[in-house]
Amino acid sequence: MSACPICRDRASDPAFRPFCSKRCADIDLGRWFTGRYVVPGAEEVDDEDAPGGRDGE
Ligand SMILES: [Zn+2]
Question: For residue 47, how far is its CA from the centre of ligand 1 (angstroms)?
Fold first, then answer.
């Protein structure tokens, strides 16, 4: 088992590896959106159906 790279907690949900949950996966994804990483070309995103999934916006 590897630790979640976002919150350093244990990765508990194999569906969202290496993250512990969708929340942490979204946080990592958000880093891409904020331009932390350079994305060559458009990235396919089909995860905008999360009502209230993002906090701190
Ligand atoms: Zn986490």
Answer: 18
